[in-house]
């Protein structure tokens, strides 16, 4: 019981100090209205198709395939006797 009243007193003291040091700020009404409007509307999301990335990955895949094919052909080629 005593600790509850002490905690309440400490909290009241902290609240009073905060009220003294921190003064409330009134936001710009136009800003608040725009913010409320933006938050209440569903966002419009548009996805961009990354054609450049698709071509880069395709080119990389073709390059790896051709490189592997050349290595495979070189290993299969008969070696000349020296």
Order of helices and strands: HHH
- Given helix and strand content, the structural type is mainly alpha
Low-confidence stretches: none
Shape: elongated
Q: What are the defining features of this structure?
A:
71% helix, 0% strand, elongated, mainly alpha, 82 residues
Characterize the structure shown.
The chain contains three helices and no strands. The chain is mainly alpha-helical and 82 residues long. The radius of gyration is 36 Å and the shape is elongated.
Quick take:
71% of the residues lie in helices and 0% in strands. It has 82 residues and is mainly α.
Write the SSE topology.
Layout: H1 2-21, H2 29-40, H3 51-76
């Amino acid at each position: 019981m005593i600790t509850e009243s002490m905690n309440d007193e400490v909290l009241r003291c902290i609240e009073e100090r905060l009220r003294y040091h921190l003064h409330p700020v009134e936001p710009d009404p136009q800003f608040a209205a725009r913010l409320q409007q933006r938050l209440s509307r569903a966002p419009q999301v548009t996805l961009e198709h990354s054609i450049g990335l698709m071509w880069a990955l395709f080119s990389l895949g073709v390059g790896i395939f051709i490189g592997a094919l050349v290595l495979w052909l070189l290993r299969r080629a008969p070696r000349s006797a020296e």
